[in-house]
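Ligand: magnesium ion. Inputs:
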Amino acid sequence: MSQKGVSVVLPTYNEKDNIRELARRILDSVKGSVEVVVVDDDSPDLTWKAVKEMGDPRVRVIRRTDEKGLTSAIMRGVVESRYGIVVWMDADLSMPPEKINELLSGLTHHDIAIGSRYSKGGKDLGDTRTAVFMSRTLGLVARAVLNVPVTDLNTGFVAARKKLVEELGFRGDYGEYCLDFLYRAYKLGYSIVEVPYVCVPRIKGESKTATNLLGFFVRGRKYIYSMLRLRFSNRG
Ligand SMILES: Nc1nc2c(ncn2[C@@H]2O[C@H](COP(=O)(O)OP(=O)(O)OP(=O)(O)O)[C@@H](O)[C@H]2O)c(=O)[nH]1
Ligand SMILES: [Mg+2]
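Predicted complex:
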């Protein structure tokens, strides 16, 4: 593994109409050596094929046919990364890849840098107002209960050393892995810095998460369960 440079991991499921623009914007904006690692769960829209057709050696795709799920996809990309610094983010163009340089600057003095919708200067335009309100409220509750000085514990836009991510690993899935990862990192003494960004709505492709109220409650329940488990398993 070559240390100097950054690997950007993009988990995808049916992101054919977004992936190439995102990969190009990453290659155009990130300073220094960079690779893009797309981890696609054999998308029916052939996202993996669209990546291959780019024909750029800095962009590779791992097409998974034996496993599914967001969290394991991100970890697979991390494990297969070439560089010592990894970034992961959504592939639906809701997160600006031009912010990656700021995340990398954050790593000069911190162990983990996260894109943040809720710190000063950030915004979430990507969801309905009700969803933003509920997600923010849950975030504030988690912050208070867990006593972690991070406003966007549920970001999915993260930069860190590959070794750290591999050591900590992920637990849980879409709705709670990030909270769990950041909390454990913080408790182990790793520092986290937030870089504000504006999250914009997905324009192309479909959301993979249920946006109806029932879906929100199912995810919210898992989130609250994770939060309480973390809180009460660390009382000592
Ligand atoms: N490999 C893989 N990627 C996934 C899976 N589920 C979601 N993704 C990707 O994870 C990212 C986040 O999923 P989204 O559908 O954007 O979820 P969301 O941000 O809550 O929903 P939007 O409202 O559409 O933005 C996207 O890049 C998806 O393609 C999965 O099971 N496997
Ligand atoms: Mg999204």
